[in-house]
């Protein structure tokens, strides 16, 4: 007796076109980041830097900011890897809504708005503190060198 498998409908068209939002769970961190960028963060420093109407319209700065924040939250810092994730991963695809920017565009956005993005991270930390997710304090690093009384051969025995 052979085992029956569920049909694999790889070539079958779906009745309705799928939305990328349908593939990302409601409690996913990408949804939190999008709502944070849309509703809570002050992006006036970034939005105010766009003046000229010449050339192609730029990507929405809110989308680019959410893309960078989600990349950092996911441990992806490289512009090339963020751009690749925007076409391969559903959580990144949801943020860019299927219109992924090139890695050069991501890199240029980060370079152009480096100071404003640093201020946004402070805003995010303050929002997290207000929500009780983190406790802000001082971190001190000491570079004191202390002479040790152990040799390499003595440590191996």
Write the layout of secondary structure elements.
Elements: H1 29-39, H2 44-47, H3 61-73, H4 79-88, H5 90-96, H6 103-112, H7 114-130, H8 152-156
Helix pairs in contact: 1-3, 4-5, 4-6
Q: Low-confidence parts, pLDDT < 50 over ≥5 residues?
A: none
User: Biggest β-sheet, characterized?
Assistant: none
The percent of residues in helical segments reads 40-55%
Shape annotation: extended
Q: Could you tell me the strand content as a percent range?
A: under 5%
User: How many strands appear in the DSSP assignment?
Assistant: 0
- pLDDT averaged over residues: 85
Walk me through the structure.
The chain has 157 residues and is an all-alpha fold. Helices cover 49% and strands 0% of the residues. The chain has 8 helices and no strands. The chain has helices at 29-39, 44-47, 61-73, 79-88, 90-96, 103-112, 114-130, 152-156. Helix 1 packs antiparallel against helix 3 and helix 4 crosses helix 5 (90-96). The longest helix is centred in the last third of the chain and has 17 residues, at 114-130. The model has no long low-confidence stretch (mean pLDDT 85).
Keywords:
8 helices; 157 residues; mainly alpha
Q: Could you give a quick summary of the protein structure above?
A:
With 157 residues, the protein is an all-alpha fold.
